[in-house]
Amino acid sequence: MGNLQFINAPLLWGLLLASVPIIIHLLYRRRFRRVDWAPMHYLKLSIQRNRRRVRLEQLLLLATRVALVLLLFFLVARPLMQAAGLGGWLGGRSRTSQVLVLDDSLSTDYRQGGRSAFQRAQDLAAEVVRTLGPKDRFTLVLASRPEEPLMRDVELASPDDATRLIAAQSPKDTFTSWKTTLEEVAKLVEGSSYPIVEVTLFTDLRRAGWDDELTELGNRWSAGRVSLRVFDVGAQGQDNVSLDVLRPAQRLALVGAPLGFVAEIRNDSNRELSGVDATFYVDDSPTVVRLPTIAAGERAQIPLSATFQEAGPHHVSFQLPDDELPADNRRWLALNVREQLTIVLIDGEPSSEPLEGELDFLALVLGLGVGEAEAFQVQLTTDAEWSGGGLGSPDLIVLGNVASIAPEQADELARLVEGGAGAMIFLGEQVADPSSYNQSLYRGGEGPLPAPLDVWSEEEVNGLLVEQGEAGPLDALLQINPTELERIKVRRFYQVQLPDETPPGVRVLARWNNAAASPAVLERVYGRGRLLLWTVTADRAWSDWPTEPSYVMAVLEAAKAIARADDTGQDGLAGDAIRRAVAEERTVTDAVVEAPAFDSPQPLKLEAAESAAGSATEATSPALPQSAVPQNAVPKNIVLAFPDTRRAGLYELSWKESPGGPSVAAYAVNPDRRETALARIEPEALKALWGSLPVEVISGAGGEEGIAVRGVEIWRNLALCLLGLMAFEACFATWAGRQR
Amino acid sequence: MAASRKYSDPDVLARVAGLSLRARRVVEGSISGLHKSPFHGFSVEFAEHREYSPGDDLRRLDWRVFGRTDRYYVKQYEQESNLRATLAIDASASMRYGSAAYNKFDYAATVAGTLATLLIEQQDPVGLAVFDSQPRRVLPPAATQAQLVRILGELDDAQPDRQTSLGSVLLTLAESLKQRGLVIILSDLLTDLEAFYDGLARLQYRGHEIIVVQVLDRDEMELPFNDLVLFRDIEGDEELFAEPWVFRKAYRAAMEQFVSEARAACGARGIDHLLMRTDEDLGGALSHYLHARERMLHLRHRNS
Prior knowledge:
Chain A is of the alpha+beta class. Helix content of chain A is 24%, strand content 29%. In chain A, strand 9 (197-203), helix 7 (215-223) and strand 10 (226-232) form a beta-alpha-beta unit. The chains are: A alpha+beta, B alpha/beta.
């Protein structure tokens, strides 16, 4: 009989009612009448002749009626048999290709009743494996990596092979887009050995990821003898406290300079968060942080700060105490702390007198540093000394009242900005003819200059207005008292010709407080860098602003905002591949990564970077453990790649470049916030996504009672038997009655 | 003695009034007798005296009795015919059963009373034998009103009881009946049939004509019970618990066969077999039988 279980086991108590026909039969014999009878001989004769037949008829009727009751309650208890053997025969199954898809997204780690949805999924999947027919083909897929099945179209020698593999899995920190996942599953289905395919999904039915319609896929499967059943292993609970964001408050991390961070916490539970401690890790060194009270349904921003005393890669993380979903309670940041910023000041009107040069005052401001750190290394030069290509690789270039820009100078400046450096241009009297700027730096809108220069205006203006909106380099000025900006007196400023439609990457950061609201500071995002155009002088020649405290703030904040940011520390989402470009014409060896999911360093894949035509190709496939490229083969563009980032945490890459030497880079992979939205999708809404494909949704969340039973339902066959038995009973009873 | 009215049903008597019950051999005898008046060629036997009533035939006055008593009495004579009837009625316990207005004994006794009345009106002597396992009470045939009273009284006194042993009773009867006549057996025939047939044979051997009136109850024929029944042998101790509906059909078939066999056995011996059910109209059934018998005898007379 195999493993027989029941969906509605309590109804089996009804089997006791099968004794009712017997009891009725027995009780009925207690009521009788007495008759004094003369023709006893003939009575006995007729009884004797029919005794056996009548006895058989009575027993058969009684047995039929008892069987009817038994069968009825057996049927409503919905028995399940294992698909193998008799269960498979009764369930009418043919050889089938079974595709099991296990949802291992972040939300499946949600725990209720001491068990997570993923654990329930594992148990159910193991049960399903045990119900496979002996000749069935089996494919096991994780939703986080459907393109690489754990098992593909195999005939299981023993279910233990699959159950062990299932038990070895764990939830990931990824987001599952079901449309994408199921399209990959569809490829596996198309490649299945048998025409009958049964796809079984084990998922917590959280709405996130089920945003797309699957009508086309559903219709395809419906036509192709593919059935789909979904086991809902999710708990109904949605209480969760999550760490949504951990971000730096500033772009630049400099040695000795306090670096601010902001942690954003979301309390989606129905309880107030109070008296809770979190942990702030700075390079694995923990610090306890007492959280403020966060009401249910509210968010809070927690300011954090860290100061690094050494340059190089560092990391921070912030962790909340564990709750129902611990996976979204920690986030990481990888950052590169720099010793200093290199700033080149190109003075167009130098002076030997202190603070008389165009940029002397600016150099003084920039030389202030950041906090206790001497953050800025300032190099002062003149436009005469500036030859195109001689600036090196500064982080920030400042031009002050440079009369004209030679083409090679403009090229160098554009290249540096495009490569990520920042640039600030202050104008002045020396810029009498703006044509060289327009030609060499604006280039009809193709250059780094935000707008073509026009002529300067002699209009006297009082006050500066900072534009609000998207975050910008001058946002710090929005935090000060507006009267500080109203005191700024401008006697002369350069006018620019902004087109009616502001080109992309160009914006006005601040305006003069005049009727025309003339732009005061403009920004152009150019390549990986930015250029700020100030329409006044850097000194007091055209305005009193340099004497105002707001000037220092503006210049410093602008410098920090646009100076080259080191991108050796990067962040990404779980599931997104890590890709690190190596400088051109380098040879890379010993490229490995230390990843959270692995105990030992894993090899990095070396890929060819995008060519000039824009297509990516694989240099080697798969990843090689050691020297990836023969010494005598020097590819021009190399990308170090690691695709398996399904676990959140810190990924530390290391490799050797030739020339160059050992290199390291850190990546912070964080959980995908979309998975922390725990709203559920109703089974009916899920079914509606699938077009004409009938979807069976089975509840598999048994809470503390355990998992619902599975197997092949045989109630339909039992129902047919019941109908047949009822018809038989009626006909036989009528026939037996007529015989008498 | 006042006549018992229990088994003298005026309705039944009215139905059979004007009918006669003749022995077959009376007809034959009368035919072979050739033009003999009922009063000629027959030996006439004195039966009894009765007081003279104006209009009686003076030739019948018994002067000897007048000489002794000074009172006028006429002689009544018993005409010797071919019909001396004996009513043999089964008064065993089995005759006690009844589901209709009559039980079987009452029904048979009413038939007996009716026939007795009819025969006495025909001036045919009628006797009575009440029996169970043996003759219980026997009245020799006589054709007087007093005999009728006695017969009805005996019937009234009889209580159905004890077992049936019809065969041995008929054998005894055959020995005791001196003159040939008509023996009318009223019984349910729920007895040893072989012995019964032997008894019939014995009576026939002794020259008697026999009519068998088998009286059965509707229940005994149809077994109409729909409850569980504990059947107790009415003439014994045996009990049988049964569901009648289970074998009703088979039982009815058995009873039909029983009656058919009895009818066939009687028919084979030239014995009239009349089945009467207690739920039947007694007068109608008896009248029907007597009519049929008269027709049959008339036809034979014409054909001979």
